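User: Can you recover a sequence for this backbone? Please restate the input before giving your answer.

Assistant: Of course. Working from this structure:
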């Protein structure tokens, strides 16, 4: 049983999460297998990096753990944090070291995306609005322009490749109204 520092309603998601964690803590994870480190009590909820709070999970288990955390009933502020964590889990954080791409069912994606947008709006409302008017350093602006230019170039390159490889579509027959009537054969002068 996990000692939650925030109020969490004990329901089927909490129970499944705790069973998953208990199972993972009691097994020996194979060294040659791919695994991801998971904070049992998320850092955003007050967890730390101690050995007791970390467990190695298979990638699928890690995704399920974050999905269960998101499904748990807790205060709106804590739920927003779990929404953001799930969003980063599914979409990545922009960190090049974290190259994950999970395929999730559309319904779950929609629900988590709505929760993430709601969490972002609440976060900005709580911390003084939006990024509007934010001043960027000239180096950051230049870096962003270069990245945008490169992405635009790559996109154009790939689109050209796709169009070059695409089979040409057969010409559709013209409608009978626009076709000219067949020409009558002209008599050969030798036959007359």
């Amino acid at each position: 049983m996990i000692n939650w520092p925030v109020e969490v309603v004990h329901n089927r998601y909490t129970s499944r999460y705790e069973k998953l964690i208990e199972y993972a803590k009691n097994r020996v994870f194979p060294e040659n297998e791919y695994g991801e480190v998971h904070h049992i009590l998320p850092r955003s909820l007050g967890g730390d990096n101690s050995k007791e709070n970390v467990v190695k999970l298979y990638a699928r288990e890690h995704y399920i753990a974050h999905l269960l955390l998101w499904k748990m009933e807790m205060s709106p502020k804590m739920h927003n944090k779990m929404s953001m964590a799930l969003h980063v889990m599914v979409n990545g954080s922009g960190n090049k070291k974290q190259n994950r791409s999970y395929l999730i069912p559309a319904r779950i994606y929609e629900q988590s995306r709505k929760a993430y947008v709601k969490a972002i709006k609440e976060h900005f409302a709580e911390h003084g609005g939006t990024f509007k008017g934010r001043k960027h350093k000239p180096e950051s602006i230049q870096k962003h322009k270069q990245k945008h230019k490169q992405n635009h170039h790559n996109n154009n390159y790939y689109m050209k490749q796709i169009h070059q490889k695409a089979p040409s579509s057969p010409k559709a027959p013209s409608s009978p109204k626009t076709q000219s009537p067949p020409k009558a054969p002209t008599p050969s002068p030798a036959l007359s």
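That completes the design. Strands lie at 8-9, 36-39, 54-57, 73-74.
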